[in-house]
């Protein structure tokens, strides 16, 4: 009953009709994994059948512009994982990764520490151009994005992928880029399915802009199944050592109640008025858990913007200096453990209606750009080697762009081969050979039966 009432609140707010909810079933836990994989179902994340809350920290020593992947440098990651353990975080977010590097060792160290990773698939070189998105949505760009998926999907502790970070900002013209961000989200989800990979959740990390917050959120969860995100996240700096009401978080719970997919804060941690991190108490409380699944404190390393909680003397340094906020964060996390039970989540997931165009939201079509013709082959053949953090980047590739709008539903992966008779495999020796080319219905069924059998066996 509550959810029906709340959906109508939402409907009034944005003037939309109620959507038919789709029941979702949590995937069985993967007991073979070095760490149980996290799945998304209803409006929540799950570790097996246990509700999972992100209790994390944003991690990019040197900042994004340094273009250095901390998970590709064992000295760096080991140094910082020791600190993550002291903090008691269960998740980190990394903004810039090198898809041509090896991540085995750092990902294993993280898994051993019980830490999941959320990966931004973009980086400053391979990303969308917010004010001129059409040319930047191209084959070269998608190749890099997909190569990042290939690199990280194999780790059980990869929690999610971001399809973009703050592409849309306070410049109203940037709202036109939303169609492209959403197309990328569709393509990433479709790539994961086409390649027969584990269903790692994909969603967008939004800037917290009052004028477009709700439109953007609704936009990312409207339309056909293939066009919807698995979750939505935003960066929020409105809790400045205040409380649930003063920060406006009460409104952010109200407005997102009945939203229909999982939601979390991809950045939080206002620095005005000092920092006691009392917002963690709110995030882990009943006031929020029915809508939110935790968040990531911004950020680990102290950079020019002053948000970090450790000082790193130089990039190769083997030790760091903890700032006074370090122990405050550790304390707040310890004092506010993840709640037991299901947190009042909603077991169904529902799409909402797309927002309409107005002076703050310039998107005038619900149609998304079609995947660039040249990128379709990746679905079947894989992306191949990633470009890493080198080269000219993709924004000005000047070719391989989209040539029209997609038919809604075109990103759906049915398991029927899109073309050709297959064979040959992707040749990367990862055991995924032919998966993209076979009818997946029996494959999925066999996998499920096998997984259930395995769980059954292990439980005994
Ligand atoms: C909540 O939604 C209303 C109506 O769309 C909007 O005016 C308000 O700014 C929103 N508040 C927050 C905190 O998102």
From TrEMBL:
Compositional bias annotation for Polar residues: 393-405
Location of the protein in the cell: Cell membrane
Name the record gives this protein: 1,3-beta-glucanosyltransferase
InterPro entries: GH (IPR017853), Glucanosyltransferase (IPR004886)
Role played: Splits internally a 1,3-beta-glucan molecule and transfers the newly generated reducing end (the donor) to the non-reducing end of another 1,3-beta-glucan molecule (the acceptor) forming a 1,3-beta linkage, resulting in the elongation of 1,3-beta-glucan chains in the cell wall.
Gene Ontology annotations for the cellular component aspect, listed alphabetically: plasma membrane; side of membrane
Domain of life, per lineage: Eukaryota
Keyword Acetylation: no
Originating species: Corynascus novoguineensis
């Amino acid at each position: 009953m509550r959810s029906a009432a709340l959906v109508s609140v939402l409907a009034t707010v944005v003037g939309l009709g109620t959507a038919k909810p789709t029941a979702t079933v949590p995937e069985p836990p993967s007991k073979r994994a070095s760490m149980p994989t996290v799945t998304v179902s209803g409006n929540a994340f799950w570790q097996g059948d246990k509700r999972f809350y992100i209790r994390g920290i944003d991690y990019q020593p040197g900042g994004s512009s340094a273009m250095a992947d901390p998970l590709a440098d064992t000295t760096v990651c080991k140094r910082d994982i020791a600190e993550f353990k002291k903090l008691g975080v269960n998740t980190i977010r990394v903004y810039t990764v090198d898809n041509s590097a090896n991540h085995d060792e750092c990902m294993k160290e993280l898994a051993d520490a019980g830490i999941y990773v959320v990966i931004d698939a973009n980086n400053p070189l391979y990303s969308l151009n917010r004010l001129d998105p059409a040319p930047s949505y191209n084959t070269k760009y998608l190749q890099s994005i997909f190569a990042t998926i290939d690199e990280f999907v194999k780790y059980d502790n990869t929690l999610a992928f971001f399809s973009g970070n703050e592409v849309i900002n306070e410049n109203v013209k940037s709202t036109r880029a939303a169609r492209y961000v959403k197309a990328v989200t569709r393509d990433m989800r479709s790539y994961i399915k086409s390649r027969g990979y584990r269903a790692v959740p994909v969603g967008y990390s939004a800037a917290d802009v009052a004028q477009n917050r709700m439109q953007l959120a609704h936009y990312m969860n409207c339309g056909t199944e293939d066009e919807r995100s698995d979750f939505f996240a935003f960066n929020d700096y409105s809790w400045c050592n205040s409380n649930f009401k003063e920060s406006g978080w009460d409104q952010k719970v109200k407005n997102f109640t009945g939203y229909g997919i999982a939601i979390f804060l991809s950045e939080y941690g206002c620095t005005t008025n000092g920092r006691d991190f009392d917002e963690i108490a709110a995030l882990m409380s009943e006031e929020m858990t029915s809508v939110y699944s935790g968040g990531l404190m911004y950020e680990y390393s102290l950079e020019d913007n002053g948000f970090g909680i450790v000082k790193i003397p130089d990039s190769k340094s083997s030790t760091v200096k903890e700032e006074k906020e370090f122990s405050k964060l550790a304390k707040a996390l310890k004092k506010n453990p993840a709640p037991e039970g299901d947190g009042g989540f909603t077991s169904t997931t529902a799409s909402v209606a797309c927002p309409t165009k107005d002076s703050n939201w310039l998107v005038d079509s619900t149609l998304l750009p079609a995947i660039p013709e040249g990128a379709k082959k990746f679905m079947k053949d894989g992306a191949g080697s990633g470009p890493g953090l080198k080269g000219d980047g993709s924004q000005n590739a000047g070719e391989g762009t989209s040539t029209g709008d997609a038919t809604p539903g075109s990103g759906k992966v049915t398991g029927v081969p899109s073309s050709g008779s297959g064979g040959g495999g992707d040749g990367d020796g990862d055991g995924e050979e032919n998966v993209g080319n076979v009818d997946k219905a029996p494959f999925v069924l066999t996998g499920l039966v096998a997984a259930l059998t395995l769980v059954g066996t292990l439980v005994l």
